[in-house]
Task: structure prediction
Amino acid sequence: MVAPPHRADEEHLVRLVAKGDRAAFEELYRRTSPWLAVRLRRRCADEQIVAEVMQETYRAVWRAAGAFAGSAAGGTAVGWVWTIAARASSTPSGAGPTTRSRPRGGPAALTVTAAGTAAYAVAGPRR
Result:
């Protein structure tokens, strides 16, 4: 029997996200977004940039969940999410998250609201 998303560990949630499970994605977001926002705020005081990096991070998580190697490669899901966020926040000089091209399809349908919840518009195909 498969554990419901609210009882699964983060690695299992990423595996479910790779299969397109939105409830698992929402649970992963619920668990990881508070600490991720705190860590990003330590790197950048601009709330708009933090919000954009968060958005970009979770789009990338949705899009790339199938590539997550997890404990087989000595990593954790939380560490993987942080690595994505750290890379998203480290842009070449003068190029912020708002100047990057946005992914098409499913990830673009994700919206992270100011209240800190993941919401979806019309979702396209996963890439």
About this structure: Residues 115 and 127 are 27 Å apart (CA to CA). The domain at 5-120 is CATH 1.10.1740.10 (Rna Polymerase Sigma Factor; Chain: A). The helical segments are 10-18, 22-43, 47-64, 77-89. Residues 92-117, 119-127 have pLDDT under 50 and may be disordered.
